[in-house]
Structure to design on (496 residues):
């Protein structure tokens, strides 16, 4: 396999320093809705200036460059093992170049590996697909926002809710309330419905790759996404939790099959610095773009 | 409009600040996180200062009287001339310092604590009693805040590690919002209470 380590480094740099236009547009829109002179307005003005500065200076948008999560869709004849090695090596190079902060620490001792690699770090999801080219998605998921994620087993004594879309709505509203501004609001919620505990949250996180203004192919879920977006904003938590009109920039949902006994609703919280990009390598040409 | 504050800050200036006010900080600030707070409590606030730490005590006593603590684990670069500079320096979550903050404030005469996410009752009471405020910086605004950190004046306890060391900085127009004032008001408590009422309304509807 050809060595594409440098392309992976470029993908990391672009993701860490250059926020996608759909998120920036949503933040500009949120800023115009807040009253000038309010703390919420001030926070969004600072955020927008920061996005510009990061792009111009090639510096990370946020010092918490988080867990790098790669999604690789590859053609039938490519080696997973070689790709893993190249991704790990790209992560080490990107850390040296300060596109990433060294974030991988041993779970119990807290000892930092210094180069963002370690046991199952970075995260890589491999999917072989039917096409003859390579597509790689990267998401940088900061710790503060990750801590605001939640998983509900519905119903439970602590969380009496129904096993339907109404119960899902209740779980998502509850998670958004509990997060307050701590996940660096305004955030984006990725929701996985069904599956087991692991697949459910993975599905939720995958939703964060969707463009903010897209339409869910499932009309029922599409309606609920739009309803929850408005309802969460009615909570009034606002940017940074200062109070205000925009608490989330979007809610994205998907369902997966489950066993009859379980019903999980898993919510991944992404901060306003919603860093995700997609690289495509097709017939020797390379593009890195927003989803 | 944002109020310009020059460190050291007087009690009168602090008492004039209310929740929701936007401020621009100017002057000398010290970073301190988990290890730093634990160290200050054990050696200076609760313990008797050991001889080996007397010099450090003097530095903090002078720097923090009327001064400001910043909850921050920066990305730092060492320049060719041997001096340091901040590359990315957004706030970290403050609640971890809740057990220590009020005592540190009282002992050193701290007037402001910068961080994110807010703090709880003990710190709020400390702000009220000693005339201090909690200043919320914008989470994630790392390069922008690093630009406000004009000069690294010194570093102490680097053996705690880069994020945990005490960094002495000169900041210019560092943007913050007062979210806990010296009159017992917390924006975080208000937003939590208001959003809970709204949540119940939505769930009942």
């Amino acid at each position: 396999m050809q060595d594409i380590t440098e392309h992976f480094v470029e993908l990391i740099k672009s993701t860490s320093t250059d926020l996608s236009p759909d998120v920036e547009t949503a933040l500009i829109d949120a800023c115009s809705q807040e009253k000038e002179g309010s703390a919420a307005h001030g926070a969004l003005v600072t955020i927008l200036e920061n996005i510009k500065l990061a792009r111009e200076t090639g510096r990370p948008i946020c010092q918490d460059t988080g867990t790098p999560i790669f999604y690789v869709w590859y053609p039938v004849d490519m080696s997973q093992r070689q790709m893993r090695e190249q991704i790990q090596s790209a992560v080490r190079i990107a850390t040296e170049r300060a596109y990433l902060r060294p974030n991988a620490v041993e779970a119990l001792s807290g000892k930092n590996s210094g180069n963002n690699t370690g046991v199952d770090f970075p995260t890589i999801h491999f999917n072989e697909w039917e096409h003859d080219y390579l597509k790689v998605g990267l998401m940088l998921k900061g710790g503060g926002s990750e801590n605001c994620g939640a998983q509900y087993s519905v119903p439970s004594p602590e969380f009496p809710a129904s096993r339907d879309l109404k119960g899902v709505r209740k779980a998502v509203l509850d998670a958004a309330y509990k997060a307050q501004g701590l996940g660096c609001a305004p955030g984006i919620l990725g929701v996985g419905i069904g599956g087991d505990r692991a697949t459910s949250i993975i599905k939720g996180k995958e939703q964060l790759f969707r463009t903010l203004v897209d339409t869910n192919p499932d009309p029922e879920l599409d309606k609920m996404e739009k309803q929850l977006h408005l309802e969460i904003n009615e909570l009034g938590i606002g940017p940074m939790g200062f109070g205000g009109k925009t608490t989330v920039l979007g809610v994205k949902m998907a369902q997966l099959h489950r066993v009859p006994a379980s019903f999980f609703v898993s919510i991944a919280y992404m901060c306003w610095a919603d860093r995700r990009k997609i690289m495509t390598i097709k017939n020797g040409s390379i593009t890195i773009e927003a989803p | 409009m944002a109020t310009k504050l020059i460190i050291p800050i007087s009690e009168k200036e602090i008492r004039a600040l209310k929740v929701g006010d936007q401020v621009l900080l100017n002057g000398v600030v010290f970073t301190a996180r988990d290890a730093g707070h634990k160290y200050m409590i054990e050696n200076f606030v609760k313990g008797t200062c050991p001889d080996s730490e007397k010099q450090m005590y003097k530095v903090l006593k002078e720097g923090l009287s009327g001064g400001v603590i910043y909850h921050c684990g920066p990305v730092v670069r060492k320049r060719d001339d041997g001096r340091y500079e901040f590359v990315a320096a957004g706030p970290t979550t403050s609640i971890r310092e809740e057990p220590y903050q009020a005592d540190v404030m009282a002992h050193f005469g701290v007037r402001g604590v910068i961080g994110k996410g807010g703090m709880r009752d003990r710190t709020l009471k400390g702000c009220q009693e000693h005339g201090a405020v909690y200043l919320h910086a914008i989470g994630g605004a790392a390069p922008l805040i690093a630009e406000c950190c004009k000069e690294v004046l010194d570093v102490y306890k680097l053996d705690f590690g880069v994020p945990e060391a005490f960094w002495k900085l000169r900041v210019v127009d560092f943007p913050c919002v007062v979210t806990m004032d010296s009159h017992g008001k917390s924006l975080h408590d208000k937003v939590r209470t208001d959003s809970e009422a709204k949540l119940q309304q939505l769930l009942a509807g």
